[in-house]
Design goal:
alpha+beta; OB fold (Dihydrolipoamide Acetyltransferase, E2P); five-stranded mixed barrel; 37% helix; globular
Length: 488
């Protein structure tokens, strides 16, 4: 057990050890520096045959406050027929990282950047992912542009993709843009300084809100799992804040779902094998039915995402305090997403949670290897050349990416628990309002409301049940194991 007088716990070292334990290689391999130096020696725009020049458009990006690896930018225009034309520009990472090179091999092995809260372990060197291949503000870049039109009902059409030269005119952040769109905060400085940018973002928001309503009508699940982020002072975690969804996060989510759908259908129409991102119809639907029944709702015997979402929406209204716990239970029962090979003329299992049949990953190539693969398949299609991967290659890549994504989640969960234990260590002896989140053979578990952390009741609490509100006293933390113990 740790006390408030223990030596500081090294979270960065723990993150590195966790990466190794779960099969990652945090250090870049021999030869990576030489390849990086070769790329840096040619900072000019790479050749992009057939690329449109769209640098005159008022592109902008919206991402987390701390994001440096900018994968996509957006632009929209109002059409005379009432539809809104949306363009999503995605960083062309493949143009700098050639297949078969050292950095490509490392990316294929790692498959994803891992965000531990205290250290980011990037799939590609930061010099690339935060620099040369990032869609940074006021920098000319080569991009893959995904285009679609949104009608008044939220349905999208006329999807296509092509290469273009782009320039991000405004790097913006979710929190400030979201508050402004919702009317609860002032316009961010860049938005306040440009009426054109303000109008552009309002139009993008209008398109996204149409699309969100359309997906909900088709059964997309409105889930609210709790996400937190440590507040850092230098290398020390001093607090934990809850990340809130808003209109800006919704805007980007809707555009990414639509863009990924366009790419999946492009491969399907061209009869090209590809990697899809799927969430299968839940095998444990019977247990989801039981959970709903316990809350007074009868769901259909066969999986039905629309009925499930209607139940979730009702529960959010009825019991908002426990809705994140219900959401988490449903997410676990649905099972994790996975990558699969989809061959030409072969139906895709689809994505149950998003209520879409056609879905791939294409919009985050700086941080996900499947998106780099998708770029290469797409560019071979543009060039009318042979495909760069065989079906066996794609199947192997999909299987490995699913495995490593699962490992990344394990690292991130372990670190979230350790960070919480470190943050609370100086507060041993203090009391916190909490809610009971679980009662089973292993004990009684609670979640404090501020900061938002999970722990175990090791003293008292007899007779408590899930949902009960309780005041708990912190008695110990163990950062190495991620344990937080309370007394009722």
């Amino acid at each position: 057990m740790q006390s408030s007088h223990s030596a500081p716990f090294n979270l960065a070292a723990a993150a590195h050890a966790s990466m190794l334990e779960h099969g990652f290689q945090p250090e870049f391999p021999a030869g990576a520096d030489a390849q990086l130096a070769s790329i840096q020696a040619h900072p000019e725009l790479p050749d992009a045959p057939g690329a449109q020049d769209q640098r005159n458009l008022l592109w902008s990006s919206i991402d987390n406050d701390t994001s440096k690896d900018l994968d996509q930018i957006e632009w929209a225009e109002q059409l005379p027929d009432g539809r809104i034309r949306v363009l999503v520009g995605v960083a062309d990472v493949d143009v700098r990282v050639a297949p078969g090179t050292v950095l490509d091999g490392h990316a294929r092995s790692e498959t994803t950047s891992v965000y531990t809260g205290v250290v980011v372990f990037p799939m590609l060197p930061a010099t690339l992912s935060e620099g040369i291949t990032s869609l940074n503000e006021n920098q000319d870049r080569v991009a893959l542009v995904i285009e679609f039109c949104v009608d008044s009902t939220g349905a999208s059409s006329d999807g296509k993709a092509y290469r273009a030269l782009v320039r991000n005119r405004a790097q913006l952040a979710y929190n400030s843009v979201g508050a402004w769109l919702e009317g609860s905060g002032p316009a961010p400085a860049k938005v306040a300084a440009s009426a054109d940018l303000a109008a552009q973002l309002k139009l993008q928001d209008q398109a996204a809100q149409r699309m969100l309503g359309c997906r909900f009508q088709h059964g997309a699940l409105d889930l609210e799992t709790v996400e937190t982020q440590p507040v850092m002072q230098g290398t020390n975690a001093v607090d934990i804040k809850r990340l809130e969804k808003n209109r800006a996060t919704s805007l980007i989510e809707e555009f990414m779902v639509a863009a990924n759908g366009v790419i999946a259908r492009t491969f399907e129409d061209a009869k090209v094998a590809s990697i899809r991102r799927i969430v299968r119809t839940p095998k444990r639907w019977d247990r989801i039915v039981e959970v709903a029944k316990g809350l007074g709702t009868t769901l259909p015997v066969e999986p039905d995402s629309k009925a499930l979402n209607d139940f979730l929406l009702a529960q959010r209204q009825k019991d908002p305090l426990h809705f994140p716990d219900l959401s988490l239970a449903v997410v676990k029962l649905m099972g994790p997403g996975e990558y699969v090979l989809v061959k030409p003329n072969e139906p895709s299992p689809g994505h149950f949670g998003l209520a879409v049949q056609d879905y791939t990953h294409s919009t985050a190539p700086n941080r996900r290897f499947p998106d780099m693969v998708t770029q290469r398949l797409l560019k071979a299609l543009f060039a009318k050349g042979s495909q760069p991967y065989s079906e066996n290659d794609l199947n192997d890549i999909a299987t490995h990416c699913t495995l490593m994504e699962d490992n990344a989640r394990k690292v991130e969960r372990e670190m979230a628990k350790r960070i919480a234990a470190v943050v609370l260590r100086p507060r041993i002896g203090q009391s916190f309002p909490a809610v009971v989140t679980g009662v089973n053979n292993y004990g009684t578990f609670v979640r404090t409301l501020d900061p938002h952390v999970d722990g175990k009741l090791v003293q008292g609490g007899k007779g408590l049940d899930v949902g009960d509100k309780v005041t708990v006293k912190l008695i110990s933390t163990d950062p190495q194991r991620g344990f937080i113990d309370f007394a009722a």
